[in-house]
Amino acid sequence: MTALPSTTAQSGLPTDPPTPDGPRRAVVVGGNRIPFARAGGPYVRSSNQDMLTAALDGLVARFGLAGEQIGEVAAGAVLKHSKDFNLTREAVLGSALASGTPAYDVQMACATGMETVVGLANKIRLGQIDSAVAGGVDSTSDAPIAVSDPLRRALLDLSRAKSTQARLAALARVRPGHLAPAAPTTAEPRTGLSMGEHQALTTAAWGITREAQDELAAASHHRLAAAYERGFFDDLMTPYRGLTRDANLRTDTSVEKLATLKPVFGKGLDTPATMTAGNSTPLSDGASTVLLASDAWAAERGLPVLASVVDAQAAAVDFLHGREGLLMAGAYAVPRLLARNGLTLQDFDLYEIHEAFAATVLSNLAAWDDERFCTERLGLDKPLGTIDRSRLNVVGSSVAAGHPFAATGGRIVATLAKLLAEKGPGSRGLVSVCAAGGQGVAMILEAA
Amino acid sequence: MTSGVDGADGADVPAPDDPATLRTDVELPGVPGLGGLYARGVAASARLAALSRLGRASDRLPGVAYVVRGVRADPDRLTAYQHLLGEPASDALPAGYVHVLAFPVATALMVRDDFPLPLAGMVHLANRVQQHRAPVLGEPLDVRAHAQDLRRHRSGAQVDLVTEVRSGGDVVWRGVSTYLAKGVRLPAGRSGAETPDAGSGGGRRGGRPEFVPPVPTGQWSLGADAGRRYAAVSGDRNPIHLSRVTARAMGFPRAIAHGMLTASRALADVGRARGDAFAWTVEFAKPVLLPARVTVRVAPDLAGGGYAYTGWDGRCGALHLHGTVVPR
């Protein structure tokens, strides 16, 4: 038995333990993602593990982490094959990181990426680890498909069959009807409504107009395009499979062009249908990672520190019985986060609200500026008020970039951390990401 | 064999005016199989149809109640039922599953030679359940079923099948199923008369206000095999639910969903907010032709204090069912 390398033994020990005054900071060093593709696009044959490994290796290359043992890597996927029971650990083993790097999977629907950042940042703050990689990946192109029970039983018998006759007998039991696959959908299991139909109910309830949605969607594309033009994503992205930019980005789109699209959600309601493919996120493939660390760990390696993870808050709402919209949990998470940190909604330089749909962002904003919502549902004295829209999703968001479910949190955290670093010390950013199941996660980042 | 006097049926039920409120309990050795009952029912229905044509339809219900003691739920069937309906797979029996357990006992009563209405083609108009507590897996249950309140309906005759489920002598669950036999003419002057819109769930066509679909909260996707799947967990293999061919033989263009499948799905959608003791009602309107997408609203009923639910066809706006679940 050979002795373990000294780095393995040493790296388990925090180099700057928490102070008596409280936990130390957890900081965002940087991030890396692969460009997001549209479903059926250039990543059509790429698995979740392929894409997560690619994003991870890009991060390792950018920060010179090859052969390093990281405290922990946490990532996840929303649409996950049963064979990927150890998705993140397998990605680590296939990456340039030291194989002694522990890894685990997290799954919180579209908030998966956010939750990996929250959990790992907390471990760093508590002194349990010094460094971490948070991430997420999703493929709607390579999504798992379940087969019918009769087909599954026949296939299992086939695999156990010893003779040609037995194999034929197993195959002969398969009927055409058994071949119908059960592909994952974005339908909520308990309501049977797709995410778009759920948002359409919320959109109608808040009276969000088609024009407002198309404006937000056009801005998302234009801002993302401008960010690419100024090279903003150069140190946040590694090209993959021929893609160098998010495939969904339409630099030449406009409010006029978006206005020509036919509505796809909310057509059965008695209010005008306003949600189109243009102001909704497309099904996407992609992966993202974020490098988190203690200040000391980053300093030892001469790595930059973009922002600190100040605090985070999850919330969930009852969307089953018409009490609240499926994607409105962020509207509840944010005020709790503000209260705990003694901040108002206006105390931020930048806001990142995940554009599951343009209408999701607008519904959240409308709710925060609504007296009745804020007093009755949030229990506040007065509305949270409005925000300066020029500070919201300043380099575009999911409508333009795409939304590989679990990868969105990592995209947003790395993007906002860099934006805050550009703004300068003390600048503050707020993130809110909604998720299936009526959940949401909000987070405060502050430039380091 | 014992004789029993029916207890009060609850304030929402008109006083029974059947000639025989005194009924004799007939104890059956076990829960009868529904397959055999349907076969007998079809044969009896032909005989009743002939009598009806001759103007000799009876207006008297059987003077007996059927009793089966020591009925127990089967764990595998319970699990399959809970998975299909979206109920938590706990050891507590969903109220719809208790209906499934007890249903053959009531059906056995309806295929008796002296039951005046034909089983074949019978339409389930409404259902009311009072659950005092949820029976649990392994608990021996005594089931008693009788028919009451045979009365006229604008398009035939209707009757209530009352099923009580007891544990240790206490009623834990009581269900009243209202059925319509279309085209059956009860003798004129028959008391009970027409009760088209009575709370007991008579026919709802006459004078019913136009149905305006509310804001939905969900949608049920019921495949072409929904009837077969519910039949597998409930044992109710009434041919109108099984396939297009068998449904056509009974006068429907396609297989129709079991009413209790939709009502039980609504009960599951209410979730744990219903508590352990509740009243659960449903009135069925237009049958759900399979395959179907039923748009639903399941939401707190501010007027009633519990939950109200409605299911309708999202495309044509036709009402399929509506009801309430009120915790007690």
TrEMBL record, chain A:
The active site is at 110 (acyl-thioester intermediate), 403 (proton acceptor), 434 (proton acceptor). Residues 27-295 form the Thiolase N-terminal domain. Residues 1-23 are annotated as: Disordered. GO terms for molecular function: acyltransferase activity, transferring groups other than amino-acyl groups. PROSITE patterns: THIOLASE_3 (PS00099). Residues 305-446 form the Thiolase C-terminal domain. CDD domains: thiolase. Keywords: Acyltransferase, Transferase. Residues 1-11 have a biased composition (Polar residues). GO terms for cellular component: cytosol. Transmembrane segments: none annotated. The keyword Acyltransferase applies. Gene3D superfamilies: 3.40.47.10. InterPro entries: 3-ketoacyl-CoA_Thiolase (IPR050521), Thiolase (IPR002155), Thiolase-like (IPR016039), Thiolase_AS (IPR020610), Thiolase_C (IPR020617), Thiolase_N (IPR020616). NCBIfam families: AcCoA-C-Actrans, PRK09268.1. Belongs to the thiolase-like superfamily. Thiolase family. This is Acetyl-CoA acetyltransferase.
Automatic annotation (TrEMBL), chain B:
Residues 212-298 form the MaoC-like domain. InterPro entries: Fatty_acid_synthase, HotDog_dom_sf, MaoC-like_dom. Residues 1-24, 188-218 are annotated as: Disordered. Pfam families: MaoC_dehydratas. Residues 1-14 have a biased composition (Low complexity). Gene3D superfamilies: Hotdog Thioesterase. One of its GO terms (molecular function) is fatty acid synthase activity. GO terms for cellular component: fatty acid synthase complex. GO terms for biological process: fatty acid biosynthetic process. This is Acyl dehydratase.
